[in-house]
Amino acid sequence: MAVPTPPAAQHDRGLPAPPAGLKAWLTSPAPASRTQARLGRFYRGWRGFVRNPAAMAGFVIVLLLLVVAASADLIATHSPTVAGDLRTERLLPPGGEFWLGTDDQARDIWSRIVHGSRVTLVVVLLVSVISMPVGLAVGTVSGYAGGVVDAVLMRITDIFLAFPRLVLALAFVAALGPGIENAIIAIAITAWPPYARLARAEALQLRGADFIAAAKLQGASPLRIVAVHIVPMCMPSVIVRVTLDMAGVILIAAGLGFLGLGAQPPQPEWGAMVASGRRFLIDQWWVAAMPGAAIFIVSLGFNLLGDGLRDVLDPKAAER
Amino acid sequence: MAVAAPRRQDGERGAAALRILIAVAKFAAMLAVTLVGLAAVTFVIGRVVPIDPVLAVVGDRAPQRVYDRVRAEMGLDLPLIEQFWLYLSRILTGDFGRSVLTTNPVLTDIARYFPATLELATLGTLFGTLVGVPLGVLAAVRRDTLLDQLVRVVGLIGYSVPIFWLGLMALLVFYARLDWAPGPGRLDIAYDYIVTPVTGLLLVDSLIAGEPGVFWNALSHAMLPGLVLGYFSLAYISRMTRSFMLHELAQEYIVAARVKGLSETRIIWRHALRNAAVPLVTVIALSYAHLLEGSVLTETVFAWPGLGSYLTNSLQSADMNAVLGATLVIGASFVLLNLLSDIAYRLLDPRTR
């Protein structure tokens, strides 16, 4: 990629012309444009991220999850839902034709895990997509408006925070009826309050900033100020928090699946697969062990990735 | 001056008392609002159930007249806000309705199942604290060594592992393969019905009744689920201990203690840990509250007859009174534990006095 030489702004101040090259352009101490500054910050963050082996491991795991989910049809060796020969292929141990063995319906566990990665990804993505805007909206409005609005919104947030997440999700799914869509809605309902808290804290700090006052003087409506000026500033920390929460979302979704409240059979959901293996735990351990290991690895990956992202984006919190 | 001084002190004391009173009132008001909010959430959940509670009582062949009468009897024809008021006044008197599954009042059921959960969560928290705190301290003292990394890995696994799967694997290894632990349940059948429940905590009741055999059997049964549950709290507590200790060890009073020539052991365990202990109390209380949640999944795996099993069994049979009652009780315990940890923090930390 051709690298643009730094624009003229620097020469005016008599700074020495920086050496050419992408790296130099990215690490320039005096970025000449907003894009350069942003890319530069991103680059420095990336450098720190790459140097952190744990974060990279998490990154690789999540990347693998994405690849597996995208090419599930190619990677799976058998059908995830159609049963095999019930007389000869039931509960076979790992090895040979069935890499991770077969379950009680003679289905290949490997193929089911591979296809299950799609379910997991959909849950994580949809929960984030639903809960993040809600949390951002509640938090920024609350922080910017202050007063009664703030008090009311924060009380509501506290009430949702007061329930243990799994229990609240359980109660909602019980009311809405089992199924993957309802599980996603229920988890999203329990996921937004921390984002609202975080966004409110940031909005409170921004409220008195000069650029907000300037926008106000220009006649911007409160809605516009919140949407255009405050929300974008709150995004980075909320995104980090969402990433950190993804492992928790996976575990709750798996827990709901395990209790039979998530994805319904024959959909290959990992938690439900563990539950179906319970009956054969003693003699055919792989039926329950393999999908559980998949949940564990993916949730570990998201945890590592989230920790790494936080270290990069928020050096203050790195100590914790 | 000499005359005025005591009076001013009196005034200050009065002002301080007033401040505390206001703080307590604020606390109480917030607690009340949160608890009413909890009730509102369960009320709303109860409303969105697609099952018509009137139809469930009268059956779908009842004439309209009967249907309307029962609907009025159940208070379902009232405006929502009045219905909520009725609901609130009922749960305040401890009336959560009847469980369809067990036919008992839900509160009776909860009173019977809750101690088992409490027993498990206490055991888990004990394990998590007794192992997690020293681990966290050592990790902070030997920062960036192999030990620190090891503690970090232990913590990460604790955060990432699905607890129901960990429970199943523990059963597979320690019960089925190694035969170190007894199977699921709270007691072997041979020990059933020996001890009359007093507190409902089997470990306590067996001691009261003077039945050591029952006690040891109960303890051996509680060990595996307790450890599985405690592993999560170990992960959380060790991580937070490490972070608090790192903060304390960087303070100047530690340097002063070193200059004074105190032994490193004394500095770490007496000086630093003592200050780190204040926020740790909050962390331990929080982890205890989270174990109430973790017990939902652990109990189903270990067939442990606690609130979690009760909740999941009721879920499976759409027994909404029981589900909402259990949810409310777990939520309220969560709020109270949070409150207690907050109060303990204020009492322990001289700066907040």
UniProtKB/TrEMBL annotation, chain A:
The chain crosses the membrane at residues 54-76, 119-146, 166-192, 242-264, 284-306. It holds the Pfam family BPD_transp_1. One of its GO terms (biological process) is protein transport. It is a multi-pass membrane protein. One of its GO terms (cellular component) is plasma membrane. Its main location: membrane. The keyword Transmembrane applies. Gene3D superfamilies: MetI-like. One of its GO terms (molecular function) is dipeptide transmembrane transporter activity. PROSITE patterns: ABC_TM1. InterPro entries: BP-dependent_transpt_permease, MetI-like, MetI-like_sf, OppC_N. Residues 117-306 form the ABC transmembrane type-1 domain. It is found in: Cell membrane. Keywords: Cell membrane, Membrane, Peptide transport, Protein transport, Transmembrane, Transmembrane helix, Transport. Belongs to the binding-protein-dependent transport system permease family. This is ABC transporter permease. It comes from Methylobrevis albus.
TrEMBL record, chain B:
It is found in: Cell membrane. The chain crosses the membrane at residues 20-45, 120-141, 153-176, 214-237, 272-291, 322-345. Residues 114-341 form the ABC transmembrane type-1 domain. InterPro entries: BPD_transp_1_N (IPR045621), MetI-like (IPR000515), MetI-like_sf (IPR035906). Its main location: membrane. GO terms for molecular function: dipeptide transmembrane transporter activity. Gene3D superfamilies: MetI-like. It holds the Pfam family BPD_transp_1_N. GO terms for cellular component: plasma membrane. It comes from the Bacteria. Keywords: Cell membrane, Membrane, Transmembrane, Transmembrane helix, Transport. It is a multi-pass membrane protein. The keyword Transport applies. Belongs to the binding-protein-dependent transport system permease family. This is ABC transporter permease. It comes from Methylobrevis albus.
